[in-house]
User: What shape does this take?
Amino acid sequence: MKRRTLLQSLAALPVATLAGKLWAAPASKTRLLFVFMRGGYDATNLLVPISSQFYYKVRPNIAVPKPGDDLNAALPVSADWGLHPALRESIYPLFTIGQVAFVPFAGTEDISRSHFETQDSIELGQALDGTRDYRSGFLNRLATTLNADRASAISFTDQLPLIMQGGAQLPNMALRSIGKPGVDARQAKMIASMYGDTALARQVRDGFVVREDVMKEMIGEMDAANRNAITAKGFELEARRIAKLMKDKYNIGFVDVGGWDTHVGQGGATGYLAGRFEELGRGLAAYAKEMGPDWKDTVVVVVSEFGRTFRENGNRGTDHGHGSVYWVLGGGVAGGRVRGEQIRLEQNTLFQNRDYPVLNEYRAMFGGLFARMYGLDTGQVERIFGTKGQDLGLI
Amino acid sequence: MPTLSMRIGTLAACAALLILGGCATPFQAPATSAVKPEQLAGALNRVSWGVNQSTWQQAEKLGYDTWLDRQLHPSPAVLPPAAQAQIDAMTITQKPLPQLIQELDQQRKDIDKISVDDDKKSAQQAYQQELNRVAKEAAARSLLRDLYSPNQLQEQMTWFWMNHFSVHQGKSNLRVLVGDYEDKAVRPHALGKFRDLLAATVRHPAMIRYLDNEQNAANRINENYARELMELHTLGVDGGYSQRDVQELARILTGVGVNLGSAEPKVKKELQAQYVRQGLFEFNPNRHDYGDKEFLGQTVKGRGLAEVDEAIDRLSRHPATARFISRKLAVYFVADEPPPALVERMAATFLSSDGDIAAVLRTMFTSDEFARSLGRKFKDPVHYVVSAVRLTYDDKVILNTGPMLSWLNRMAEPLYGRQTPDGYPLTESGWASPGQMTTRFEIAKAIGSGNAGLFKTDGPQPTERPAFPQLANALYYQTLQKTLGQPTRQVLDQATSPQEWNTFLLSSPELMHR
Assistant: This one.
């Protein structure tokens, strides 16, 4: 298994140069950040079907009001759709300048409505009706297809998620909370020297380099904290850190955000889910800002394993559903609108009289998107997703 | 990528020879191993969860062959009192599983009665926390046995089979079931007959639930378990079965389910004698497809649960299974790409001994290939963490497995935590990424410095009994030191404190391998 060639050059370098930025900006300027909202978020209250009377009828306690003067009203998107007001300061401004698109009725054909199975399905990105390779996620296959010259992928998580597992060995480093490493620079150097000519020499050195770079990027953050500046928290802090690393070194990133399984008391325009939207939106806006001039070459995709029931349940929450709403953000995204196949939402158009149908299958949708982003041909898209791409005109 | 492919041809040839008495002889007297005296520590390092001073001294006293024999055919394990006391204090030890399940189920039902949203949310959190706590107990118990059981091989094989018959604790209420699954279904058969082990997993609610066989009923077939049962548990993906076999096995498995409550289903009068309830396992004839099946080229007469036993018999004695299991064992214990000749001899033993796991292991452990491979197998995270703590603290029993569990989380190999049914990878490529290595060195420093929290109890009034690592001991000076390469020795010589010396030793390439 080959590591990225831009890291291969490291093996030849003496250990003394361990510290510092050793490799140049990623070979491909195109950057992709994949954000997974684990838990199945209530997409219906994110992109609100404001023209559906049925929506207001079956969500008596948690519906978001139609656009209007009220601060709690949905933000106007189109005649049919409104955006949750918690995104007023973060995502909505990007939407109005055409840098955010939403794709409703997006998702997988997996109808198990199980978090576990549907997340796996999506991360594997393989057809459901065949023998699946459980060790091959589609971002790994994307990285392999782009090969080492064009891809340097990393997962910003504690564990390497399924989506990043596979033939290419990809690194992972969680940025949620970064502790000062226990092994100091001198010890790192000595440990690396024990690996001299062994087969693990490169991994050991690469690991210390990644760590060094992360710490270096974070020094500015710590300085700010020391000056008692207001520092970002939660996902916003994490997203800024991700941006700093993706500006310099990595062009394919993955991160997940939890807390979306709102069976009970999810709230409407305000409340629990609104708070989660607010935090996510703030983080993504901070990421866009931090990317600076590179934002024009960056695409952020936000997904979740499934949507939720169209009707609220007896606990002012919602249960596991099917189709979701995916977000696509970026400086070069053809946004400011709702994309993909759509239908009017009434009782008779619901899937199994329960939730959103999937009209925009995710593998075809991402196949089409990646083809545009990276200039992939049909054969390459099929090798990644086992299906043809469908261009939804997202970029 | 680990390859699961198998070449059955040579094996079938060998099996044929066996009948003529031409292949490995099955029930001969224990062969003496090919391990040379100077390789003792290396062999112990592989057969146990990691060599330490007491295991080494014991093996020196008994002689390696006798020690190995006791590992293959262990007497009931007696843990050190300090470790056993921790296990005795656990809920999973004190409450029978049905009671525990019922109490937790009641707790879940009570949540539905709460009308205030905030109260409901906190009640749900409390329920989830209790599930987490129970699963954590199972993991802690497993680690304590890995660290201190005299039956080291049995514990290592327990992990191996838990990974082979992998379930994910995140699904449904599996967090309550994983401890019982390990303790009652897997560990008792870890060195026994493969057929018994397979049958025990087929009848455990953790597996039935994990692979959706509760949803598998006549005319509403769910193929999930049938497919994995052949692809992952027995024949292997190239084991010569077809999609038709998957469908037929799924039909055979209809009605195999779980009943956690006290109520029994209403069964049609003529089928009542067929109903089976054993603990939480249930066979419901109402849900079973009583038609005949064509499975692996033979007819299985439709007759209820006995069909499942027939399928288990056929699968567990199939040459493809012998080969698939033997190769996986060799990948785990010998090399990422094990010598094909060794795998063939193991598979021959498997077939001639009716799937006797200890016999297959003996063929492997006494082989030249095994002796030659010592010190070259990269440790996966569980091996790294357990072997480091065993070496560092020997038989001084730790008070808290929490730090070990969190290290395994950080390195993405938590117990009962593999999401997909294929289990964790057993080869170096799965575990030697840059981030993984850096994390190992941090763990090495935490252990080497003696402040990892292993001797500090949890709870409102934590007690701490500081224990300094004992790495520079007789075992080290008499054997381990000789196996270290020049670069490692040089770095150890430059250590400025005992803590740093420990950190370097635990970070060395030699300690990353077994």
